[in-house]
Amino acid sequence: MTILVVVLALLATACTRSSGETETGAAETTAASGEGTDGGGGGSGDFGDLTEVCGPGDASGATAQGVTDDSIQVGTISDPGFVGRQGLNQELFDASEVFVEWCNEAGGINGREIVDVQRDAKLTEYKQRITEACQEDFMLVGGGGVFDDTGQDERLGCLLPEIPAYQVSAEARESELAVRPLPTALDELPIGAMQYLQEEFPDSTDAVGFITGNVASTITVDAQLQEAADELGWEKAYEAQYNSVGEASWTPFAQAMQSAGVKGLVYTGEPENLAKLLQAVADIGYDLEWTLTGGNALDQRYIEVGGAAVDGTYVYSAVVPPFLAEENPATQQYLDLFDEYLPDGKAEALLGFNSFSSWLLFATAVKECGSEVTRSCVFDAASGITEWTGGGLHAPSNPSEAETPRCGLVVEATADGFVVPEGFEATDGVFRCDEESVLALDGDYGEGATLDSVGKSIDDLE
């Protein structure tokens, strides 16, 4: 579930949102390196089951901001410069760089080279980066910011469309003028992993604990999970919030869960903190039957920190994880492109796959527009796509309707690595697809930013 991947607002240091003056960030530009290319397309522009995503052509004309005869400038936002966690979500920049290098070597999009400006929001400067992108970029593609609620009015005010890798806040998750390859609707929740746990551990759901960080985005997700648990008939035995700055000791949480008789834990937050919590649980000699957390734990670092204590951690993913690359050609191609263009990049981080899917969607829409690349044409083309898998990187989604994917798979963490657990029954390739795996929520979890709120309408988009 994508929104749980992005609850990296639970970070290892405190922070405040900046609402002051614009501060210029260190933007970094990626275009073709020129090495090994002839300007006419030096390689295949096919990806997964998508054909000729990129390639040569005769597109021309300065048809919109950021578009020239020869190039299209777009922006990508991420937070790797955040001082409290250097490299935070660097995979968004890495996946974008790999896509741009690969696409440009294949000939660009209809012959136009992509120029990607990496805009580092450093966690607290999202609004400033949006303001800069408004002045220069054609669109935003393949990125996301933890504090994305701070710039939605500015983005809509300058009519800057976005195809994000992820979004966190309610304001962003259902904002207008955005097309999402993997939507995370506010009124729906994928519950495939919860259904799996209920089937595999039927005697454990009468004593469930809930722990989340003390920031708004994760508190919202925790509330959604608790609503789903209640709908499934689970009984809550314990709930707590931890300090997102970090806890000096996780033992009090472990002891409290032991006292409450918690059998299974639903955790929303940063995975290294979870690993430390589970170590504390093991240290007092207590055993949980299972732990459910978000896809951001699909990272070898989680296992390195937690060791054997992470056994029995389950996550739900709509993205084919890297350890299944041999079974999924698109995943293998993605990893191969990293080997070719950015061998030291964060190739196996889940958000990178989301980013690459965003770029593929962008390129598909731009190609459809031919020479007349305008924001309205590209946005209309992208938002008209009703079935999307990123070439096979992830489960089918419906960007047009912003529906939560109906397919996913359960992954289990062990001390030796990640596996698909016994008992998980796939119906379509590696995924299990079921309308019943997505729950309609009744709670009020906020609403998205609108064009009307900033005095604009979709008719203003050119």
UniProtKB/TrEMBL annotation:
Ranges where the Leucine-binding protein domain occurs: 207-394
Domain of life: Bacteria
Low complexity composition-biased segments: 19-35
Signal peptide stretch: 1-19
Residue span of region Disordered: 19-66
Keywords associated with the record: Signal
Biased composition (Gly residues): 36-46
SUPFAM superfamilies according to UniProt: Periplasmic binding protein-like I
InterPro entries according to UniProt: Leu-bd, Peripla_BP_I
UniProt keyword Transmembrane present: no
Gene3D superfamilies: 3.40.50.2300
Similarity field: Belongs to the leucine-binding protein family.
Protein name as catalogued: ABC transporter substrate-binding protein
Biological source species: Iamia majanohamensis
